[in-house]
Amino acid sequence: MDSRNRHIVPKIDLKNGIEFGIYTLADHLPNPYTKERISAGQRIKDIIEMGRYAEQAGFDIFQVGESHQDYFVGQAHTVILSALAQATKTIKLSSGSTIISTSDPVRVFEDAATIDLISDGRMELVAGRASRVGLYDLLGYNLDDYEALFEEKFKLLLEINENEYVNWQGEYRAPLKNAHVIPRPDNEQKGLPIWRAVGGALASAYKAGQEGVPMYLAHLGGPAEAFKSRVDVYREAAVQAGHDVKNLPIATAGFLFAHENMIEAYKQYYPHINEGHMKTNGSGFPKAAFNEGKDRRSVLNVGDPKLIVEKILYQHELFNNSRYIGQLDFGGVPLDDVKRNIDIIGEKILPEVKKHTRTKEEE
Amino acid sequence: MKVAVISGSVVGSKTRKATTELAEKIKALGGHELEYIDLKEYDFPFSDGRNYLDYGGSTSEALKKIMDAEVIFIGTPIFQASIPGTLKNLFDLLPADGFRDKTVGLVVTAGSLRHYLVAEQQLKPILSYMKANIVQSYVYITDLDFSKEGIESDDILLRLDNLIDSTFNVASAQKKVIQEYSDSFGF
Q: Which chain B residues are closer than 8 Å to A291 by Cβ?
């Protein structure tokens, strides 16, 4: 940890190029082609298998998101991550993201630290705020506190992560008096890399920069350039607050679907995305917006391997991100299709992206 | 087609009378699935920006009926030279592009002719922003056109027929346009 950076950041060795990963929101949706939905148990097992398969294909990280609404099975996402810790050996694991606003940061840390111990130090956390808000009622929180809950609990999570004994007082949780929060990850800092998830809000990117925590930037559609403002705001805020930007990684996340035939990729993935959004968000993904993905400047990484490589490299050029993670299973994509995709990405996309994003010989 | 008819007020009866008349006429045509939503029968909360499915209960049910419709008729009174807050709140409860690919026809009830351009200048911009395909001519009805039971002006009744006709006409043309556009993507 750089002396100017208080928080724990992930170790990403850019000599091998940027890290390349997969994330799932653990959605549990019918396959639009058959209209059938696999059982919740099968979906969870498929997610674990997806992580195992991604590991053997050379991916760096696998992430599972938390959701508490219909059509999702990732409510207990850390439990799924724990099973993944056992099923895999080398791939990094992370939440993506953990809704810190409606959880007790002590419990979140305990769970994540335990997974870190099971996985021999492969665990990370991404803290987010949820785009859907049903979980506030479900878990007993007031939606009026949406912003304040996140900011307070995120701060506490960082505090716990950086101190084995915690003294703390806040508005939304009983105070901690010299509380011993264990188990601790078995590393020098006795903590985990913790990221802040940032969606569309510039203010959130600004806060991430001010805090000097690594930023996870979600981008589902639109031109990559439109997301650059978040990256710029993040880095400017970090500099202003006196953090060392060089050591503050940015990760980006969005749709990823590859097929040898460009049109086939669009044809196959669109019904999953559109009908999945219809069910989970109440409105579909406009076809014209999805079609924009064919342009290299769009963040939607769908197409043939050549186009996707071009796009990820273009995005890297704009964002200087240290990690990219793709979502390739949304909307009831059958496991076989997920695996076929992982194969193509592992063989044709990941190696190219890594080759072209390696940092030159460091001193 | 899937149709929603909305009576956009919790006050008075004229907008309800006009939209009920309209709904009866659509029913008489046959061949459509119709949902009649009278805002007076709902107790919508003020929009707080959450996804419309997250309000739960009858609010989310009503909003879902609107989101599922292909054709929407909106009836509104004019209060204080504008649409009622109730109707604006309904728009606020829906997603920003909630009327994408939907065709919308309008019926306005008002106390005087002075408010004729209110729908033009205040309602249509909202619908445009929400990506509605708006039927340009609307039916404007004043007090004098109503009897105790309902609309008694032949002129208005014929205009309503005309609005229904042109709204479905525009909607089916729009459907073909969308299909052609969609096919052009090759997937």
A: 185, 187
